[in-house]
Amino acid sequence: MRHFLNLTDAGPDAIAAMLDDALTRKQARAGWPKGRADADAPLAGHVLAMIFEKNSTRTRVSFDMAIRQLGGQSIVMEAGQMQLGRGETVADTARVLSGYVDAIMIRTDDHAKVEEMAHYATVPVINGLTDASHPCQIMADLLTIIESGKALPGMKVAWLGDGNNVLASIVEAAGLMQFDVVAACPQGFQPEEQAIVRGNGRARVVSDPREAVDGADIVVTDTWISMGQAHADTKLHAMMPYQVDAALMATAKRDAKFLHCLPAHRGEEVTPEVIDGAQSLIWAEAENRLHAQKSVLRWCFGQIG
């Protein structure tokens, strides 16, 4: 059974194969209506259950369209509208859904929930986001970087701000795909040591944002106040020196690109001139959630790698 809870579940060869498949399928669809199935409809007859314990725009729409374009169907379930939100265990939910659908995607808080879901499910389980990692987002980021003409091995990625779940998955990707990550995070908001260890020596944390961005190929940030957190003035004050503005971008390579998984708060983690500027790839990055996740689904069903 192939579950996609973290990037390591697939490994570098499968990730490379998925990225190649995503790029090929995206190019093959150029000019097509969004709702038209791929020519081979490789997941025809398959149903994906999508469980949301956290609100979503990109994850919801991209996975829904992904399974449709692969020829399958989806069922969307809000935790508050199903028994999971009324005390039914994750294990029981996994067992029940496995009898109805062919795969489960869950977007939740505690990473232990997706692990429990995968343990008891008899169908593939995909991590749509947890507090610990966001592998589907990073698959889209890697696809976007490749599309921009950059090679993954040996590149430098600079991260600015909170040491969160997105950073954890970027670091994990660095260890697998052989690029470097330098994360600039304020004291008290640095990533857990375990997350950095997963980079296999390809990641380090610094306090100076200019040190992180100097010579970078890719500059990445994320919202400082994550979903479910209070809008903490103390945290915002600590983060302000890590805002990505034009002056900071100027210390990266001249052809450096800017990424942000969205939603964004212009004027907080990034200035409008950067996120809406020529170096920003955020709209391609958002669209690539769809294309990358199609290949993740195919990998889960043994069609890739």
UniProtKB/TrEMBL annotation:
Its EC number is 2.1.3.3. Keywords: Cytoplasm, Transferase. PROSITE patterns: CARBAMOYLTRANSFERASE. Carbamoyl phosphate binds at S56, T57, R58, T59, Q83, R107, H134, P135, C136, Q137, C261, L262, R289. GO terms for biological process: citrulline biosynthetic process; L-arginine biosynthetic process via ornithine. Residues 2-147 form the Aspartate/ornithine carbamoyltransferase carbamoyl-P binding domain. Residues 154-299 form the Aspartate/ornithine carbamoyltransferase Asp/Orn-binding domain. It is found in: Cytoplasm. InterPro entries: Asp/Orn_carbamoyltranf_P-bd, Asp/Orn_carbamoylTrfase, Asp/Orn_carbamoylTrfase_sf, Asp_carbamoyltransf_Asp/Orn-bd, Orn/put_carbamltrans, OTCase_ArgI. GO terms for molecular function: amino acid binding; ornithine carbamoyltransferase activity. L-ornithine binds at N165, D222, S226, M227. GO terms for cellular component: cytoplasm. Its main location: cytoplasm. It comes from the Bacteria. Pathway: Amino-acid biosynthesis; L-arginine biosynthesis; L-arginine from L-ornithine and carbamoyl phosphate: step 1/3. It catalyses: carbamoyl phosphate + L-ornithine = L-citrulline + phosphate + H(+). Belongs to the aspartate/ornithine carbamoyltransferase superfamily. OTCase family. Reversibly catalyzes the transfer of the carbamoyl group from carbamoyl phosphate (CP) to the N(epsilon) atom of ornithine (ORN) to produce L-citrulline. This is Ornithine carbamoyltransferase. It comes from Sphingomonas ginsenosidimutans. The lineage of its organism: Bacteria, Pseudomonadati, Pseudomonadota, Alphaproteobacteria, Sphingomonadales.
